[in-house]
Write a structure and sequence with these properties.
By secondary structure, the chain is an alpha+beta fold. It contains 13 helices and 33 strands.
Length: 606
């Protein structure tokens, strides 16, 4: 189990802080939950054709194996106008995704933790401007002493993404928070936004101290039960009866999905975390967002003050990509992404981050996301358990084009200077083996659509016929023309590497594939079995399709020839290359060349 899959945009909720009998009693005593009765789309002012386009989009994800399974829910005027299920919740057992399927919502837990903190602020038990050291002694150091609770709740405390090296490294959430304080911030607190799981875990520890009880119990009693979120829980108790409804978690990507977490094997988290560990359903999370849109009210009860809602939904920082200073992307027309107090906020560009937000919500790294439009009284929730599929950001564009701003998309006119570049280009490197990239113009944006990932906006470089990825300026794109002046190739430059994608249907595409197609007669000298010291096993060099390939116990890696000595680059991992060594005209070994100058020699076995 790799730790990186335990971290990121995600979490879970649970009633496990109470004995099961007490949980059932609490749920039975809860007030009338917010409900979303099924209604005809037209009666709520929603186009059935627009909803059908959303369903077609997610079905396309399923057909292309971008997801294993999932669920899509559209709620308008508190009525369900679309609720569809796709694929499987467990591929191995062929279990269909259906009503009541529960997901690990990862970082969608963060707003729940922050709401728990706001409840305590309302009650005078927590001060956002107090130093964290007032609640956690581990922060009573020279480096951490000035960090405030407000900086934790806005990701401005200068803390890293995580400090964990293993899942069970700490005995409790408070221990985890204290350890973060003792380690100290990575950069000056308050100086910038930096998305941090450990910062939210620390906030959860502060909630535990201020509330005088475990995070999961406080959230369950004070938030989940009042909201009627009966399918939401922290999965830290293997005896929880809702365990049987949890979908398996998959990681890997198109054509390579592997089950990473199987709920039948028990809980993953040792205790409730602030950043993640809540499991939920789209309908339950809709109840949570509805409380935000209703100014903190649930039925006739004011659960959270209007001031707390305003604090939560006021933009604080321009949101950046995790571990980066690059702006977080969005496909919603005319909006920029900001972050409030544990809330993702889409704000009009003309508002310069001052709000009010047009869209509010959050996402989770295992493939869950929720958007809410308060003025439209509209919510869209899309849940999968396909980590790394990237379909949530793709769905944004489909939502914008069909449901939110169809008139803008319909009226978009392609500038004459961009017309020559539009079309299909065939990528053949890394994970993009013969994948068709689309260069498009959508809603005023020049786009490179990578089907297995997302649609990337391209920003023109001044004075050059070159572009950069808007969210990653170090990645550059340019186009090449043939002798007739027609565009026939796209190139992407990343660090020391340049990748070529011929335009589909051009003579250049044919020439390109003829040049890389493996010739068994020429390459036969490399064929054979090589010892692999790293895996304590063997690797076999052979032809696989059009390529020379190295077949290992982990996977088949395809090579392309680099015009430097006898060096071959690994298509799936371009920063790794392979060279072959000969003695007396016979290949005797291959060497793997890895980043940082590390090499590994694999001797040929006779």
């Amino acid at each position: 189990m790799t730790l990186r899959y335990a971290l990121g945009f995600g979490t879970m909720l649970v009633l496990s802080g109470l004995p099961l009998e007490a949980q059932e009693d609490s749920l039975a005593r809860s007030p009338e939950a917010v409900s979303f009765p099924v209604s005809d789309p037209a009666s709520q002012g929603i186009s059935a054709e627009a909803l059908a386009a959303l369903v077609d989009e997610v079905n396309d994800y399923l057909e292309r194996d971008l997801i294993v399974g999932g669920e899509l829910m559209v709620i308008k005027n508190r009525h369900t106008v679309l609720h569809e299920y796709f694929g499987e919740s467990d591929r191995e057992s062929e279990t269909a995704w259906g009503p009541g399927t529960v997901c690990n919502i990862r970082s969608m837990t963060k707003p729940i933790t922050a709401t728990a903190a706001q409840l305590l602020v309302d009650r005078g038990k927590l001060d956002l401007d107090a130093p964290v050291a007032q609640y956690l002694p581990g922060f009573k150091t020279e480096e951490s002493g000035a960090i405030t609770v407000r900086q934790l709740i806005t990701h401005r405390a200068g803390l890293p993404l995580t400090i964990l090296t293993s899942i069970d490294e700490f005995e409790s959430l408070v221990d985890m928070g204290n350890a973060m304080g003792e380690r100290g911030p990575e950069f000056e607190p308050g100086s910038r936004f930096w998305y941090s799981d450990i910062g939210t875990d620390t906030l959860g520890a502060v909630v535990e101290v201020a509330a005088g009880m475990r995070l999961d119990r406080f959230v369950t009693e004070e938030l989940l039960v009042p909201l009627g979120m009966q399918s939401s829980f922290y999965f830290i108790d293997d005896e929880d009866p809702r365990r049987s409804r949890i979908a398996s978690l998959y990681a890997g990507g198109m054509g390579k999905w592997k089950r990473f977490l199987d709920p039948d094997e028990g809980s993953f988290y040792p205790f409730a975390w602030g950043s993640q560990s809540v499991y939920s359903t789209p309908e339950d999370y809709g109840r949570f967002l509805a409380m935000w849109m209703d100014g903190g009210r649930v039925g006739d009860k004011q659960l959270l003050s209007e001031a707390a809602i305003e604090r939560t939904l006021t933009p604080v920082s321009e949101m950046t990509m995790m571990g980066s200073t690059a702006r977080f992307p969005t496909s919603f027309t005319g909006l920029e992404v900001f972050y409030g107090q544990m809330s993702v906020l889409h704000v009009p560009k003309t508002a310069v981050g001052k709000g009010p937000a047009t869209i509010l919500g959050h996402s989770g790294s295992d493939g869950t996301i929720a958007w809410a439009w308060p003025k439209r009284d509209l919510m869209v929730l899309y849940f999968t358990q396909s980590r790394g599929g990237g379909t949530a950001l793709r769905l944004e564009e489909t939502l914008d084009r069909n449901l939110i701003a169809p008139q803008i998309h319909a009226s978009a006119v392609v500038p004459d200077e961009l017309q020559p570049f539009l079309g299909t280009y065939v990528a053949d490197w890394g994970t993009h083996m013969k994948e068709e990239f689309q260069v498009e113009y959508r809603a005023g944006k020049f786009i490179l659509d990578v089907p297995s990932q997302m649609r990337f906006e391209l920003a023109r470089r001044e004075g050059e016929e070159k572009w950069s990825f808007a969210i990653a300026p170090t990645l550059s794109v340019w186009f090449e023309r043939d002798g007739e002046g027609e565009v026939d190739c796209l190139r992407i430059h990343q660090g020391p590497l340049t990748f070529e994608a011929p335009r589909k249907g051009t003579p250049h595409e044919k020439e390109y594939y003829e040049s890389i197609r493996a010739d068994a007669k020429t390459l036969a000298k490399y064929f054979g079995t090589y010892d692999d010291p790293d895996e304590d096993d063997h690797a076999v060099v052979r032809i696989d399709g059009d390529y020379l390939a190295v077949d290992t116990t982990a996977a088949v890696f395809h090579l392309w020839k680099v015009p430097i000595n006898d060096t071959w680059q690994v298509r799936e991992q371009p920063m790794i290359s392979v060279s072959f060594q000969e003695e007396d005209g016979k290949v005797v070994s291959l060497t793997r060349h890895m980043p940082g100058g590390k090499t590994l020699v694999c001797k040929r076995i006779e």
